From TrEMBL:
Source species taxonomy: Bacteria, Pseudomonadati, Pseudomonadota, Betaproteobacteria, Burkholderiales
Signal peptide start-end: 1-24
Origin species: Telluria mixta
The keyword Signal is annotated on this UniProt entry: yes
Highest taxon of the lineage: Bacteria
Name of this protein: Uncharacterized protein
Keywords assigned by UniProt, alphabetized: Signal
């Protein structure tokens, strides 16, 4: 009986640790569109991979002022991100550590015609 109690205690104590290890590779995040344009495509692929992968939005778009949850393939934290706006403008960011953010907010500067992203 004491052996069972020790195993139960070990399982109870290690459960939070196991959750933290799993969350260390959690690259899921919210994309917030703070531009006046609709986001038509989002491509996210592991940094160093030659393959860009499919459009994670599929048939969905992200309207101005809206947010959308994105779930890239698990297992790594550092990704390249390419965002395409319906206005035919696109931008790519390389080496973004998605495990360190919860929200990526897009903004567009009309003066210099630059799409930028900030993190939270």
């Amino acid at each position: 009986m004491k052996t069972t109690g020790l195993w139960a205690a070990a399982a109870f104590l290690s459960a939070p640790l196991a959750g933290n290890i799993a969350n260390a590779q959690d690259a899921n995040f919210i994309l917030a569109n703070n531009t006046a344009f609709t986001v038509s495509s989002v491509y996210i692929w592991p940094t160093g991979s030659p393959y860009q992968g499919p459009d994670l939005l599929g048939d969905t778009t992200i309207d101005s002022g809206d947010t959308y949850p994105l779930e890239p393939d698990a297992g790594v934290c550092t990704y390249n991100i390419r965002v395409v706006l319906e206005a035919a403008y696109q931008k790519q960011w390389n080496g973004v550590d998605l495990c360190r953010l919860s929200t990526l907010t897009l903004t567009y500067n009309y003066l210099n015609r630059n799409l930028s992203a900030s993190t939270q």
